From TrEMBL:
Keyword Transferase: yes
Domain of life the protein comes from: Bacteria
Biological processes annotated in GO: tricarboxylic acid cycle
Annotated GO MF terms: citrate synthase activity
Keyword Glycoprotein: no
Protein's recorded name: Citrate synthase
Gene: gltA
Pfam families cross-referenced by the UniProt entry: Citrate_synt
Keywords: Acyltransferase, Transferase, Tricarboxylic acid cycle
Catalysed conversion reaction: oxaloacetate + acetyl-CoA + H2O = citrate + CoA + H(+)
Amino acid sequence: AGYWTYDPGFMATAPVESKITFIDGGKGELLHRGYPIDQLANNAEYLEVAYALIHGDLPNAEQKADFYEKIRKHMGVHDQLRKFFEGFRRDAHPMAIMVGVVGALSAFYHENLDISNEEHREITAIRLIAKMPTLAAMSYKYSKGEPFMYPRNDFNYAENFLYMMFATPADVNYKTNDVITRAMDKIFTLHADHEQNASTSTVRLAGSTGANPYACIAAGIAALWGPSHGGANEAVLEMLDEIGSVENVPEFMEKVKSREVKLMGFGHRVYKNFDPRAQVMKETCDEVLGALGINDPKLELAMALEKIALEDPFFVERNLYPNVDFYSGIILKAIGIPTSMFTVIFSLARTSGWISHWLEMHSTPFKIGRPRQLYTGETHRDFVKVEDRK
Ligand code: CMC
């Protein structure tokens, strides 16, 4: 007995008050600091959105220049961190590397880890947002056996990520295509925050113990990895591979309906209407494929799935719409990003959201997170000596 309620999956529990993100799942509305997600994705840059998540408003020109400069300054990583990468097998999943290296950042910045100090908290937020593209690209370069690339001061955030992923030292004039850079930046914006999802709740729970922010973000990355959460974009592509071609769709749909498999990239705990991020992502997907002149049979297959799911009573009755990961996987594939990097990119983008929640938590009074349980084990019984045990 107690004053708590049994609530598996936290379906009915709001453990925090927050001013960062608002979702109306019924209407399919998503606002960051009050700004609608489609307006942000179509007009703002990811770093402006990151600033708004952290500070409450979009930056004015001076604040923007100052924030961008700080991010630029902190994009590089300590040279010793390269050695850390070398400890992993070359075929390690890049998410496995990310969980390790982001947690390891706490070993590099102990002098700024007093979480009761506002300046320390701020510099940590800057460091994390700045270093994520570099670390993410390094995890890819390592798997390829190519040298790590340093971020460049003349490139913006998304350009730098693409440059560090795809350029090599031999390729001094490397330049990304503007449509691709813009699409990459939009993907970052559309994944920046989503209130108390599993990984953000993990960051808050870890943070509630007073753990250092790098460790908290590493915990968020670990939670994001699962296929029900950030791993879904990778799972969408695997599913498309498994289906193979449009004529196999009806057979696959039968498996979905008999609950043998889930249609990855569909459904959401909160949205019971079209995911507003998916809408923007779908438009971006068309732009990228148009600009690159790609006519991908995977896309044709994805569109066939989308059409059936939007019309079939099984999906309609359960309000299962395509979510953000359904389209982001297709765009990333078109850009040439390997599937194993999809969730890493999600984690890069979500870092601004995670750290905003961590900062919000530390600027207001909070309690350690400590859920209760419904105990269903043995009741009281007496100890039995080993020789007398059955
Ligand atoms: N395919 C087929 N059936 C589904 C799916 C799906 N993707 N999602 C939900 N359902 C069914 C489910 O079987 C249940 O049916 P019934 O009531 O007859 O048993 C009903 O819809 C309600 O589903 P639920 O499992 O109670 O919903 P949930 O809120 O617990 O799960 C979810 C939400 C996102 C985990 C789930 O929809 C899912 O696994 N989707 C596929 C994975 C995916 O795309 N995840 C990315 C989410 S968006 C990005 C992010 O936040 O990371």
